[in-house]
Amino acid sequence: MRKIVLTLLATMLIAPFFVSAQDMLNQAVPVDPAIRTGKLENGMTYFIRHNEEPKERVSFYMIQNVGALLENDNQNGLAHFLEHMAFNGTEHYPGKGFLDYLEKNGVAFGRNINAYTSFSETVYNLSDVPATREGLIDSCLLVLNDWSNYLLLSDEEIDLERGVISEEWRTRRNAGFRMRNQWFPVVFEGSKWAERDVIGDLDVIKNHDYETLRAFYHDWYRTDLQAIAIVGDIDVDALETKVKELFSKIPAVENAQPRPQFEIPEHDETKFVLATDEEATNSSISIYIKHKGTPRENKNIGYLRDDYISTLFNQMSRERISELLQKGNPPFINGGIQIGGFVRGYDAAYITATANPDKEDEGLRAVYTEAQRILRHGFTEGELNRAKVNLLTSMESDYKQRDKITNDQYVRGIQAYYLEGEPLTDAEFDWQFGQAILETITLADVNALAGEMIVDKNRAIVITGPESGAKHLTQEEAFAILNEVENAEIAPYEDSAEAASLVEGELPGAEVVSTKKLEELDAVEWKLANNATVIFKHADYEKDEVALRAYSPGGSSLFGTDDLQAASMVSGFMGSYGVGDFDAIALKKVLTGKQASVNVQLGELTEGFSGASTPKDFETMMQLLYLQFNNPRFDEEAYGALKSRYEAFLQNMANNPKKIMSDSLSLIATAYHERTKLMSANMFDEIAFDQMQELYLDRFKDIGDFTFFIVGNIEEDLAKEMAVKYIGSLKDLPGEEQWVDHKVRMPEGKTEKKIEVPLQTEKGNVNILIRKELAYNPISNIELEVLKGILRLRYTEEVREKEGGTYGVGVGSSSNQYPYERKTLQMTFDTDPEKADHLKSIIFREIEKIVENGPTQEDLDKVILNMKKERAQAKEHNKYWLNALYNKYYHGYNSDAAENFDAILDGLSIGQMQKFTDNFYSNADVVDVVFLPKKVE
Do 704 and 815 lie in a common domain? Predict the structure, then answer.
């Protein structure tokens, strides 16, 4: 019955004689019928939906219609502060009670347990919770209950959290944030957005009275501003009963003050602001044209149609800018003309460009000219037809993949519906409606949108860039450029259609000379007569996906030092050249309506390809692969255009402290080896167009060295046919190649440095690298992953929570087999420079405690359970199996086998982890670098 209704709806949209078009557009958008929703007597709204991606998992969300805009001046930052406090003690879970409980059930803080605060809302989530234990589900409901109305907000916990948030404030103070705080007061003049930045005022964070925070909590965390969303592999009826029983008991706030709607004053004049910062790396020009958004009550079928019009507009404008950047000497590094949401209640037209150094005038003139070209002449029928075909193709793929919509994706839709009244549809409606509504959208509809949105009212020009050593536009110059372009003659866009096949004529192919079944991975290996190896696995976890991966040994290790900079750019540049007889612009047009791509990869030890397509476009992907190997394109004009953009982008990167620190670490960690090359403004002095071409042809010439993996929802016979035809038609050359070990190593022993860098915010940045030459095998690889997980727990507790010393310690790990077997741990965090040495000592202390006593059983169990949970979820995706096949061939073991994962985790003991940590840590090479603010002389 439902399908009939939807079909009738679609028919009505394209056959107005059933009902007037305007009446149809004014109808409400149907809500996803699988979502159970209701409002309790206390005003709380609930949404519950059954979903099985991932299986046996459920996500719980508390959506608060409360954000930084609701703060009084003495509460500046307390909406965000309150978000933190929700993890620091509730009525039923004092202290870190519920975090500890959930982590013991495989639900990790940060990854699965998190929250965010914005100007208008605060959202909490418990994601990917195992759904098989009713007691665990009940506990998660109790956490949501406590988040609603039962936070403890104890004096002690508030004081402990001041340090954590102060460090988050410190971490977020970068050039972009500081410049935003300069231009927000101009663009949002006269509104609350001009006064808030979410993270808040440091003095308020450190010194606010306890009652000030509690008052904000009482005033705004209340049932009429709250919704809970629960999506997952659950019984909707049973859960709804639980929700009603538990959450109905929460009392509504009496005499609640109305939640204000925040407005931005209109203005006829164009505003201008220049925002600069010493650490800024590029100059950017943005024109914001603000428009009142569609009211909640008007977000109907007509609103949904308008959204499709905006999507087509944005898609076509992106293509125009992309073409402009492919030719000659591009007038800017990046640019865009887009229409979309701005802040709650407002939309905007965005006209933006990242300018070439000291050429903001050229950037503004060029991007505004393109906006005026669209405004005056509109788009062409050819552009619209291609955009529609591409949008339909994307929509069809989404529909076929509808069983892979995750719990959290569903909640994002629920959240937008609850907070802003956005349509909350299901996949069936989206596909039926999308096909029908695109038929009704004309070129006049899309072109009219430009006239509605690109106007001179409520307009603001924002220039951002380096404070020193850069030439910036003045207000008078910017206004003059707008006036000049508006009064200039601008020719219409000239569209060129491409209708050609990628590969012409018959291909010779190659026979399959041997077939081998890989029973343990349910895959098959084919050896072709040209010595190429192809491994195929049918996998339909993603219904509309086929993935490709290929590698060959060698990589840039076979090049001399003088070729390394050029080699590092090969992967990025080949994608801008196009392929075969088609430049990048023509190739996009040839691929209209197809979802197929192949990317070149040239690494240190291997070269290869990665690709993706839908099942119906699988042959197109194989054709692209064939052409990249047999008929690669080298486009000197595209090379020059991309080179100029790179050079412009890199020119001011020396101002970026992150770049300075990253480069320093790279050099120190490789003992200043001659093969350590850094990206810089003058790197292209070592690169030539012909050189890059030679390097590519050297690495991608011998198909016999390549191993290909194909995983996806196609039949084995088709995969074999396409492999024989396209991979089999490529050339094999005599001999075999192998990568070369150039002995790039970390310095031996402990290397400890303190380096001063120019920083606008007083910030210490701690970096610790620990590396040891250890065997690469499933057991030691998993032991390292477990150690990383344990250290994350220890550092969160000791450095973040107890010390209040950082927003978070990043912990990374890697196990490498080639060119030599080694394992690496990396820890990094920002902090108060005065605390850097003390907190760094805790990093080492926690490792040493594991060496001496092993981890606690509790920490070990938490990490193992989470790893098992993540692994179970990963196995339901094609990508997992592609990686498993790659591991089998490149690393020589079956990573999917139980004995190489589950059995290892099940057998892990405190003693074994203690032994591994001791073996890894003792006599390891250590790089210990702390970056500190440069002292002013």
Answer: no
- The answer to whether position 297 is within a domain reads yes
Summarised one tens digit per residue, pLDDT across range 197-227 is 999 999 999 999 999 999 999 999 999 999 9
Tell me, what DSSP letter sits at residue 237?
H
Cα 318 from Cα 325, distance rounded (Å): 11
6: helix, strand or coil: helix
Q: What does pLDDT average to over the chain? A: 95
Residue at token pair 């589950």: 902
In this predicted model, what pLDDT tens digit does every residue of 840-884 receive, in sequence order? Answer: 999 999 999 999 999 999 999 999 999 999 999 999 999 999 999
Burial readout 827-852 (b: 16 or more C-beta within 10 A, e: otherwise): bbbbbbbebbeebbebbeebbebbbe
pTM to 2 decimal places: 0.95
Kindly state whether residues 574 and 622 are assigned to the same domain: yes
Show the DSSP H helices in 16-133 as ranges: 21-25, 78-85, 97-103
pLDDT at residue 500, rounded to an integer: 79
388: CB partners within 8 A, 6+ apart: 312, 438, 441
Same domain membership, residue 321 and residue 442: yes
Domain membership flag for residue 767: yes
The sign one gets for the Cα dihedral 859, 862, 868, 871 is negative
Co-location of 243 and 282 in the same domain:
no
Please count the structural domains in the chain: 4
Whether residues 641 and 761 fall in one domain? no
Q: Which residues pair with 272 in a beta bridge?
A: 461
Q: Does a cis peptide bond (omega within 30 degrees of 0) precede residue 260?
A: no
pLDDT tens per residue, range 559-595 = 999 999 999 999 999 999 999 999 999 999 999 999 9
Give the CATH number for residue 84: 3.30.830.10
Q: Which amino acid is at 248?
A: S
Mean pLDDT of 772-789: 98
Instruction: Based on the fold, state whether residues 480 and 517 are members of the same structural domain.
Output: no
Which residues neighbour 395 within 8 Å (Cβ) at sequence distance 6 or greater? 430, 431, 434, 435
Answer with the residue of higher pLDDT: 933 or 935: 933
DSSP state of 112: T
pLDDT for the residue 937: 53
Strands (E) across 617-735 are located at 707-712
Boundaries of domain holding 209: 35-247
The three-state secondary structure class of 703 is helix
In this structure, the answer to whether residues 333 and 434 fall within a common structural domain is yes
- My answer on whether 230 and 366 are in the same domain is no
797 inside domain: yes
Asked if residue 376 is part of any domain, the answer here is yes
